[in-house]
Input
Amino acid sequence: MSRKDEDRILHGLYYYRESLDEEFTVTNDQILWLTAHPYADGAEWYQGDDLQSFDSSLLPAELRKKLLMSKFELPLRYLHHRRLIKLTNTADELANVSVTFAGADRAMRLHTRMGRMELWFQDNKNGLLGLVTTIAVSVVSSLATVYVTQHIQSRVAEPTRVIYEIESKSQPSGSHAAAD
Output
């Protein structure tokens, strides 16, 4: 089970109906399909009149049981625990789910690359990686600000004139005064 699996499931569940607190039934094979596909495919989970699904009957019984536990039951329970979905199990291979307001908000952010970056930062901001990311962003933004400011200033401001006096032209030199 990974956070990415949970996010792909949440994204697919929300974009199936795009409504809040509307309960619908999903099978374990349909949820397995969501965990095996990227976000872009999750929005197209519903094709025709049926939800796309993974054929898990081809797998051996032991492997199938472990796969269902790690990719169906645990992610749905965790999403329910985090209050992103409401979950009621009806059978071993079926579940009634509905997306909550918090789940819809997270799913909408998962729909764009910038939103996924924002969620990643929010999830990791308390750790060392979040601190390093914050420092790197602040250094890059301050360097960019200094560069832009200097570039604008060099175009607007007149360059400083430096005046050198080699010899005064108002006074006649000794050789020219003697010739007159």
